[in-house]
């Protein structure tokens, strides 16, 4: 059976093709070279069902954050910044709302109103930035991204259609299972997009150590 990633998933070690293989009742994604002959590349397998599941799970976020082309690079940065402000603003509003329940003072209510106004302003700015980015994005790119969304969210999903849509929009993908990352190089840009890719191959211990290093 064909993989939805056929022809576009590449090995992070050698850059060669990653293929779908059956091992009894289990199905995995493995470097074709490593599978064909031991010693030609590092043998690293990822359960196929998990790869498909996590890719579909994070698809909406991946497409929202997907680059639209070189002309929208600055807008992409602004959108990411506004989204971070909104996330922080939502947390702030929640905290102040809880405070007003326990502290019914005028100052607490005023702080809540101001936080809600700031959040609404950031949300409006994000809406305008997204509209502006879509205006600058070519119709061809929008159509390809829309085709990916349609094919990958279909129930039941058609593997052939999903692969066709991905091949039309993506130059290549590279899995980093232990790091929980998938790099997607879209046809219309020169730099890959980093996305979340969580499977049972994720190395929790190693990444916790990296997190501690960053905090230090």
Explain what the structure shows.
The protein is α+β, with helices and mostly antiparallel strands. The protein folds into two domains: 9-67 and 159-215, no CATH class; 70-136. Helices cover 56% and strands 15% of the residues. 20% of the residues are buried.
Helix-strand blueprint:
Blueprint: E1 9-10, E2 18-23, E3 26-31, H1 32-36, E4 46-47, H2 48-57, H3 59-65, H4 73-102, H5 106-136, H6 139-153, H7 159-169, E5 170-176, E6 181-186, E7 193-196, H8 204-215
Parallel strand pairs: 1-5
Antiparallel strand pairs: 2-3, 3-4, 5-6, 6-7
Largest sheet: 4 strands, mixed
Number of helices: 8
Say how many strands there are.
7
How would you state the average pLDDT, rounded?
90
What is the terminal-to-terminal distance? 47 Å
